[in-house]
Amino acid sequence: MSQSLNQIRSRVRNRIRDAVIRRHKRSGYVLFSDTTLRDGEQMPGATLEPDEKVRIALALEEAGVHSLDAGFPASSQADVVAIQKMTQVVKRPVLTALCRTVRADVDAAEFALAGNPVHKKGVSLFCGTSPLHRQHKLQKSRSEVLRIITDSISYAAEKFKIIAFSPEDASRTEPDFLCECYRHAIDAGATAIGFPDTVGVLTPEKSADAIRLIQDNVPNLESVLLAVHFHNDLGLAVANTLAAVAAGANVVQCTVNGIGERAGNASLEEVAMALHVNRDQYGRRFRVDLSRLFPLCRLVEDLTGVSLPRMKPVGGENIFATEAGIHQDGLIKNRDTYLPFYPETVGADGLQFVLGRHSGRRAVAHRLQALGHVCSEAELDAVVGLIKQQPKGVVIDDDRLLQLIAGDHA
Length: 410
Description:
This protein is an alpha/beta fold. Helices cover 47% and strands 12% of the residues. The chain is built from 16 helices and ten strands. The strands form two sheets. It has an eight-stranded parallel beta barrel with strand order 1-2-3-4-5-6-7-8, surrounded by eight helices. A two-stranded parallel ribbon has the order 9-10. Helix 2 crosses helix 3, helix 3 crosses helix 4 and helix 6 runs parallel beside helix 7. The longest helix is centred in the N-terminal third of the chain and has 26 residues.
């Protein structure tokens, strides 16, 4: 009787899960799956302590990501501890754990995620499928790889209702075999399939072609979500992600600041802002809170110790700073003249007019007025001339500006 009741409950949960998947696919929403805490942390020098991971996870939750790739429990006890801590405080996103197609990895994930309800935890299984991986890493035939995929997903389905499968090195896997892997994974119980460009070799055109190939050759695709995961070895991870979204991908997997193996991953904040700024082109909605992006970038920078380049889109130090007089004049008159989006849109403090050799009269007058100093045209011309004469490396901050207007040229 008890077994029968459990079977009924399982069937009900499966129907609910399937209904949620269908609703997600019909909605047209792009779901953001963040892998900062797993793939991002694999970047040399970016190791995070469990409590630091929890801080980032909570910030990602506030930012509205749909799911968190929380770690790789089989790889270290620290990952198990971090995931267990997350289950206690992170409530809205689905928490997933990475697993090889090995039963022991699934068991480790089950242990780490034990504190989460069934609809808020899952596993992401991966198995190398390209000729390179089959021959040199796994030393398995096609049929053996298919059997491994089927067996491991079937085993995971006994413990989890949310199961993602990704063929590692999918972008270099033979198209016919790639689709065969997906068909077997879905039949075995996968609820999402991923397309990872593991070594970052694709272009946007090839990325879109790959999504269309899957759509045309995986007949049971309608019952699962299709996710994409791009690496940035050619600087194209964000562009490839957007191309995949345009072709119909349901889920994008990204990292904050684009951190990750080698040249990193698709940057979460860049993908989100590109979809927002170009919503007329993509026509896809998403639930990321854009105003959380800038603080999130800075938090990840601080906790990982991986510094952001000054010119990094969305989160870099220069993104809302300018020294050029023509730009400063335009921005003072109307911010739209030289901004693709406003600082407050992403949660940044505001515009920064840097005074230096390239600055014009209007920017200097604007800053002096903000400091409560109204000067004559002659005084303004004089101080602008002095600013342009300053040696390289001299910072014209407010104190130095007031010194110059007061006649202190030392």
